[in-house]
Structure formats: C-alpha cells, structure tokens
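input
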Amino acid sequence: MERVEPIRSEKKIKDLKKYLLGSNNIRNYTLIVLGLNSALRISDILELKWCNIYDFEERTFKSHVYIKEKKTGKDKKFLLNKNAIDALKKLKKELEHIKPADYIFTSREGQNKPITRSMALKIVKSCCAAVGIKAQIGCHSLRKTFGYHSWKKGVPLPVLMELYNHSNQSVTKLYLGISQDDLDEVYRLVEL
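output
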C-alpha cells in the first residue's frame, strides 16, 4: 500500500468542500467531510448506517457515534462535530426516505449496499486533483488530515494516539505527516 499524505492546507480543504458542494454531489461531499472530521478509516465510514448517527425516535442526530473498528476490533466512540452534522443533514435532506438499517453512503448499484473502497478512493483522488491538491492522496489522507490539523492546533500526541486507537506514539507520529516546513516553522517560532 502506498503511503499517503494529509491535506496540509486549510485553504485547500475549503476549496475541496466548495468544489464538492458546487458539483451538487452531496453524497461525496458528506463522505469527505465526515472523513475529515471523524478520523475514521474508510472501511469504518462505509459501514456506517443511519441508525449509527441518527436517533429515529427523537428525530435528531446523535452527539456521539459508537462503532467497533473493522481493522482492530476495538470499540470506538467519537463526537459528531458541527461540520459533520451539517454535512449529514444535507445528505439526509436530499434522500427521499431513509431507514435505520440503510447505509449512509449507498452505492447506485444494488439495494442498500455501501459504495466500495475503490469507489471511495476514486472520489477522494478525483476531487482532490480537481482543486489542485498535489500531495500523494488516498482515503487515508482524510484520517491523517484530522490528526495533522489537530496537532497543528496544539492537541498533545498522547491524546491523538488515544483518538486513533494506536498502540504506540511512533505510529501516531507517522500519521501526522510532519514535513520540513513544519520543522522550519518551529525554528521561526522559537527565536531565543
């Protein structure tokens, strides 16, 4: 598997979201926004059903989502932030009828099947290319982007390690995709 990078530019992230909204494909917009804001692997995002994120009795989005990670088998609880909920609301509004057992990111082929990982990869790569993101991009870039921007905003490494369910900090450090520009920024910041 080739190594992918996070999307480091907040402007490019905004451009990406604007592009997706402009192309009027709310499913793809929501897929990318949820990927950027949940730090989940694409395999876990594609397995999400409406009952995981929406309370049908209360008719409201849940504040937290509980899943069992497909890769690790570990339990994961994460907060649906405002950006994720806003994107999910857009998608829900666009869909005619949703049932609790429906996948959120349904394929156009067959009934109640999620899109495939290869389709998700195609969506992420093509949308990023359309807005001029030149880094090595894949679905895992969305997960890494969350960590990178969390780290840039001062979230400590042990917290990110816990968030990612990593067993050691060295794996988390790799996720952050720290570049020479990030290191140079430290030297500019700390002038003693």
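quick obs: Residues 10-189 form a domain with the hpI Integrase; Chain A fold (CATH 1.10.443.10).
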